UniProtKB/TrEMBL annotation:
Disordered: region residues: 183-207
Residue ranges of every copy of the Nudix hydrolase domain listed in the record: 42-180
Transmembrane residue ranges: none
Upper lineage: Eukaryota, Fungi, Dikarya, Basidiomycota, Agaricomycotina
Record PROSITE patterns: NUDIX (PS51462)
Protein name: 8-oxo-dGTP diphosphatase
InterPro entries, sorted: CoAse (IPR045121), NUDIX_hydrolase-like_dom_sf (IPR015797), NUDIX_hydrolase_dom (IPR000086)
Superkingdom, taxonomy of origin: Eukaryota
Length: 316
């Protein structure tokens, strides 16, 4: 057990399924691969992957519907998170502060434990986003939503992001999430936006009602697979999980459960995240400008941004 978590988790939680307990331990033992070179802090952000144990022992992740008053990504389904601010000790500090500001999650390291930090992602606005995995060990915590930022809060099983059919997701009645809380009151955009595609036949123009769909876009020096998962709440106006949020949760589920998804996670020849960052550093934009201002760009300019991934071990 990691020194960060000296008390056995199973003594703090509702009964856990064996797969859920193994998932938590994989997160605790996970060691992210650091970037080869520093990046400017003002171009970094963090999101909180907040897990809790459902009534049947499965792990669920909290998701929010963003306020319609926000200037960007209004009404989108998202994870709590935001940009680094002066005073944040590290990525965990950024994620905790943002989760407190958005949904009132206590900044309490015993009641909300940090399990691990995952590898950073590059967003369309050239922010480097670090996912931070938390576990709520106090089931009496009640979220208090900030209506300026969050309209509603709901949950999905973390395992849902490994499957392309809801019938294969353990412990979930699709469309009936375990917890719903109503509100109390890009500089390198993908140039192509083809329709989402059914995983089964690989054709274009897949049926919009399918639980899982994907599309491949040319972004960051090569093709990138963009995923979309229905929440089961679309009839109530909740948007699917897609884009960066879907990629982050897919990667988290792969790490936690130690298995590949039931669908190809990456586009053919898709570059690693490190290669995509290196590619963007050479093409201009907010990230390389900030790196140049901080004297960090030269090291990135020497990076090789070619190659691709082993699709059997695709890490988005």
């Amino acid at each position: 057990m990691s020194p960060r978590n000296p008390t056995p988790l199973q003594s703090l939680l509702l009964p856990l399924k064996p797969a859920s307990l193994q998932c938590l331990h994989r997160f605790i033992e996970y060691k992210r691969t650091p970037l080869a070179h520093p990046v400017p802090k003002r171009r970094t952000a963090a999101v909180a992957i907040i897990l809790f144990v459902g009534r049947k022992g499965d792990l669920y992740v909290l998701l929010s519907t963003r306020s319609g008053e926000l200037r960007t990504y209004a009404h989108d389904t998202a994870l709590p998170g935001g940009k680094y601010e002066d005073g944040d000790e590290d990525e965990e500090g950024t994620a905790r502060r943002e989760a407190y500001e958005e949904i009132g999650l206590p900044i309490d390291k015993d009641r909300v434990r940090c399990l691990t930090l995952l590898d950073p992602f590059i967003a369309g606005n050239q922010l480097l986003v670090t996912p931070v995995v938390f576990l709520v060990t106090d089931n009496t915590i009640n979220p208090v939503l900030n209506p300026d930022e969050v309209k509603a809060l709901f949950s999905m099983p973390l395992a849902a992001f490994l499957h392309d059919r809801p019938a294969d997701i353990p412990g979930w009645n699709f469309g009936l999430s375990e917890r719903v809380t109503p509100a109390p009151l890009g500089s390198v955009p993908p140039p192509e936006r083809p329709p989402y595609t059914d995983n089964e036949d690989g054709g274009v123009g897949g049926r919009e009602g399918r639980y899982y769909q994907y599309r491949d876009v040319n972004w960051g020096g090569g093709m990138v697979r963009m995923h979309r998962f229905l929440t089961g709440r679309e009839g109530g106006g909740v948007k699917p999980v897609y884009g960066l949020t879907a990629a982050i949760l897919l990667h988290a589920a792969m790490v936690g459960y130690g298995e590949a998804p039931s669908f190809p996670a990456a586009a053919p020849g898709q570059k690693t995240m490190h290669q995509r960052i290196a590619w963007m550093m050479k093409r201009g934009g907010a990230l390389p400008r900030a790196a140049e201002a901080d004297g960090l760009l030269d090291a990135w300019l020497k990076e090789d941004d070619g190659g691709g991934v082993d699709e059997t071990k695709a890490r988005l």
